Amino acid sequence: MRLVSVWRRANPSQSKCQKCGASLSVRCVRPPSEGCVNGQFHVAPCASCDQSRAAKKRRNDRVKSLAPWLREHTGNLSALHRRFREGMCLEALGFVSEQQVGPYRVDELHRERKLIIEINGDAVHANPAKYRARDTIVTAKGTYTAREKWDADAKRIAALEALGYWVLVVWQGDGYAKGAAALWEIIRAQDG
After folding, report:
1. In this structure, is the dihedral angle defined by the CA atoms of residues 90, 91, 96 and 97, taken in order, positive or negative?
2. How far apart are CA 15 and CA 46, in angstroms?
3. Which domain holds residue 3?
């Protein structure tokens, strides 16, 4: 009887793919001897599962290659931003995404009404309803405390208001229904 057959009988769970149950390729690397009583065997990965991993890698590579195109054609809007934009019907109301106002890039801008909407994610902007001032926020762009972020956001809002704009901040945790209600309050106030 061949050594591989003996090994397969002694190790049935290791000779079949745990995922699909296919028989795995086994080869003897070092036969049993005094120094190595059981011998050494190499078990190759499952060919069919390995192909599916390769297919998944090809798909991921394709998505990565499309990322620049997607950013260009979606205007670089985050999923949160797109969800709020649709939920609050901002396009229909005449808002334009990602516009430059002075030295700042704002999320949504209505030029005629001089109205800016900032869509703040709870984690990145440290929603005061969920964070304490000394809490540390870690993002890909850096680390800061909640207080530092609040101060930076307040300074930004004050600068935009000094340029004559109304600024509405909507929070991820509040949902777009609350943001839409606040938006209509501002529009009513502007219209007199």
Report:
1. positive
2. 10
3. 1-74
